[in-house]
Amino acid sequence: MSLRHEYLFELKEDDEACRKAQQTGAFYLFHDLDPLLQASGHRYLVPRLSRAVTILIRTSTTSSGFNLSSRGENRPAIIELRLEGLLGKFGQDSQRIEDSVLIGCSNQQEAWFALDLGLKSASSARASLPRSEMGAELGGSFIKLRQAVFQLNSADSSLLFTDYKNSRPSTCCLAEGSLEPPSPQYWGYRRLHPEMAPVVITLVSDGARCLLARQSSFPKGLYSALAGFCDIAFAGESVEEAVQREVAEEVGLEVENIQYSASQHWPFPNSSLMIACHATVKPGHTEIQVNLKELEAAAWFGLDEVATALRRKGSFAQQQGEASPLLLPPKLAIAHHMIKKWVEKQSGSSLAA
Prior knowledge:
Elements: H1 3-13, H2 15-22, E1 26-31, E2 34-40, E3 43-45, E4 48-50, E5 55-57, E6 77-79, H3 83-89, E7 101-105, E8 111-116, H4 131-137, E9 141-142, H5 145-148, H6 154-161, H7 184-192, E10 197-205, E11 209-214, E12 226-229, H8 232-235, H9 239-251, E13 255-266, E14 272-281, E15 297-302, H10 303-310, H11 316-320, H12 334-347
Helix pairs in contact: 1-2, 10-12
């Protein structure tokens, strides 16, 4: 076990060690599960707050009188204010920090915590804090993660994807929907049996082409691999059975040669484990029958077209503004890496990371 994992295990098991880590750790603010973000060009940045030293804001402007020192557009600036001071401005004391939840740590053993300012506590003094006012004080806003996901870099998205609702808080923190501190057995159960739904995501190929599809909720021009939940509760499906059923239901194709590729935690719609697989269609059976209840469109795409889409430069938001018939998922999504792996296998050459 690495030192990082040893330290994280200690924090999960020892409330006193967890409280001590709060003194020097980094805090990420949320409001009703929506993260505090700051716009920076075509991207969103995630501000880090510390409890007793400074607040690091990665933009150069803020709407409040916090003496933010400008260092140029989109460059770091430091606010000389403690997290306790920010909470005090809104009638809260440092006890509110006890509501924070451990979500991870760095290799340098800096603990990371999520603090949701929208959750109400048993005490009226620790009620939900004003959403827009808190965001304005920090030069940002609380934004739906699903709305912002394609405008985050990989490191920030990975951090925010952490399902902190299922992470272990200190014993001072409240169980979800409860006004009483949870028992140790409750949190032990949550750690050993996380609430996460398995989802199969499959890239289907006919040998020369790959099949990509889109839903009406996707950004304009975006196509991705087919995905759907495993029906474990009622049908007791295996991963392979789920792949076969989902592909048949969504595009009317039978697949074979199913191969596991990788996995990824995905926070939507409510914390999923994405299980990536590659599969091929049966020879001579490539006619797509799109299930319009599930998809808006689906089509076969050739190697050159897909490879060209993968090589496009710029952020996802910038690519959306360009005229192109095909937009692929960003690098933070496992679908991007599945498509990249298929292109490399077909072309016999590696693409830049």
